[in-house]
Amino acid sequence: MRTTAAIRRLASELLPLRDGVAQALSQASLQGEIAVDEALASLASVTPAADLATDLRASDALTEKLATIVVLARLQWPAVVPHYVDRALAWLAETSPPWLAHVASQLRRGLARDDANWQLLARSAAMIAEHERPHLWELLLAAWSPAHRKFRGVFFTPERLATAMVERVDQLLRDELELPGGLADTTCWNTYSQGNPHGFTGPVVRILDPAAGSGAFLLAAIARIHKSVIAEAEACGRAPLEAWNDYIDRHLLPRLAAVELFPEASAVMALRIVDLLARTGYRFTSPVGLPIVTASALEGPADDGRWLHAEPLTVILGNPPFASLSQNRGEWITQRVRDYLKFDGERLGERKTWLHDDYVKFLRLAEWCIERAGLGVVALVTSHSWLENTTFRLARRRLHHTFPRIEIADFHGNRKSGELAPQLPEKISKTLEKQPISLREQMASNENIFGLDAGIGAFFLRSRAGLAPAVRRFDYWGTVDEKLAAFEQQVERGTPGELLHPAGSDYPFRSPKDLVSNAWYRQAPLLTEVMPLTSTAVVTARDGLVIAFTEEELLTRIGMLVDERASDDELRTLLFARPRSPRYPAGDTRSFKLAAVRAALRAEVEQGIDLARYVRRCAYRPFDSRYLFWHPLLIDWPRGELMRHVIDQTNWLLVSRRQMLPGRAANFFWITDAITLDGILRSDNRGSESLFPLWRFAAGVPSKKGNISSEIREKMTRLGIGGSEHGDEAACLALLYATLASSAYRQGFAESLWREFPRVIVPREADLALELTTLGRQLIDVHLLRHAAPEFTTAGEGLVTQPRYPKWSAGQVLVSAERSMACCSREVFEYRIGAHAPAQKWLADRRGRTLTRSDQVHYQQLLGALERTLEIIAQIDRAIAARGGIERAFAPE
Predict the structure, then answer these.
(1) Which residues does the UniProt record annotate as the domain Type ISP restriction-modification enzyme LLaBIII C-terminal specificity (predicted)?
(2) What is the pLDDT of residue 721?
């Protein structure tokens, strides 16, 4: 969600109030007030060190945090009805841990409402939108520390979504688990119609929100349970208020569990629940207190089992954090998530997966709870990536094994992939490859319901013996309001979603109509089978330090690391403007420590080693080679097993991806002859580029073997491809490269290319194979810039690309309002290779730099290469079309 001006103003006005409360707390502690010291000690026990202010002493940081909670509580506490406020807060103080008891006591005493600061605050708070008020903590965190909010993945759930999801859980408990009271059901295990194989006692329905935030799901659940209890009491002739009070003490509080990492959110949640209970008539008689634990649910029961009932949990619901670089790295949950790396004898082969994102860990936690119980319902809001992402294929199979019935509500809104709604006119779809990104994004309405870049889904997973397996899916498009309204309507009507039939190695949870229909194509081998030596591209993790436009710039930068006159702090400020993680100083990571690296480089210099030996050319972007400091201490993932076949060798690397971007042109193919960096085609959360070398070189021996399977070589030999006349493996790669470049291939198999590596198809007839091989060779030469630059007149000296440039106008590439760089067609200017438009990207990356004559020559060569690329692809397309299209030309007879 965007931080509004009202929220920013409120965040600013809260600070002096917080500081005043903190000063009073410090004074009370110095005067020996035991209650304050107990509150601070209690707060320290539930606060992760990473969530304390780093510029303060630990004691001052804790005092500031407790003061923040007190001020937030005062702001959150509603305009209460006098007859219950004192009793409610007294009960909260008596039944809560000391830090929360202190907050309740402060509210009970009342704060200085006539204070000028509080009056100003009240006016500012009145400007907050009604739907935002329950989520002030999340919104204020975004205003105070957006980086920390993102670091922890804190985003609130719209009330409408939480209410509708809870309603759906209530329906599923009644209809599929045969618990007629739904969430309010009090059936015990020993009388449950589905049996009690594990010998449990107590009620079947026990509810957990493992990342409860400010309580949206718990509040919705309590409201739904209240509705059921009152309806049943009225039907039985009981006094509704008496029935409700009895139910809260005997059934509600003992069956709920909420776990939340942030004390601030726990306090807000506690106040909201107390307010709701009071407004429904609760007399606050239970000695149990609210079932809120301030901790990380992912630490597991072995470390702190307070959230884990002795009896199993059967309803898991909530909106867990969306942090992709998870800070929850405890051994317990890490071991559980490893179960997604294998299933039914198959193991996940990828070195890098997205299985350690926070939401995946919470999904695994929920599954573990239901496995322990033997039945139950999980209802979570998460990223929708796990529905189709290839690295989740074993996780999908395992989840479907645990949960026979799965219901998917995909709210889409994936801005990272530029996801489009399906209502694209056919005419627009056909020209999609040539459309600028900004235009495509305007073609359909597909808002994200959280305002995030990642697509969102709500998922309902059910387990019970005897449930017939079924995976159903709903897709919601449009504005946030349209999506939520459609979801609410679907829940109210109970209409079934589209029945899916997940199958195959990927086991995608996708609509059958979206799957590739070309059976012959699906039978062709994957690129990974044809070129078995492969690896993902090199990741430096610090491009800004180890990559430069020129060798001189790079060595100057490395020289700064070696220079003893520069302090670590000075270099951090100069070279690492933004810390990657709050856990480390700027520039440092778990495996990279600036001071240690500097010392190691100095030691090499003292030994007489010339650091220039580590400078290598690298393929950074299409048509954009740069200089790389290839030193093991500065490259996080060098992919050494593959790069040894490239460094100091003559080799070609075919670049592709396991997954491309749904709704976008399937144009993620390239070729290089140097160390190749991740992001050469696009940097996103669907995995990095994969590299496929043409040759494999024996270690220490001047010999090489081809990296193309014997099966494909034999097929091509029968077509006359190979042998000395055509260059053996090089000819095979040329034919493959031409095929991958064809519009018929990219458009005809786009659905498959969005989700798996390309498959290698071979022409039926020798004449087409030979023609494509020739064109493929030409295309490789063009992409490796082995053609002469066209003759041209330079644009002169002092040429600099200005902000918001380059632009294209009337056949000219403008680098400023006054000056042009070159001439080209719009088609060349907008042509994309992967996510990059090279004619734009090359200049954009050099904004503010004076372009030398050499730069201008290279840019002209780049434009010529793009123009020639379009010509060769047109020839490839004509050759395939002349044989009746791609199926007639390639499908086996």
Answers:
(1) 529-873
(2) 84
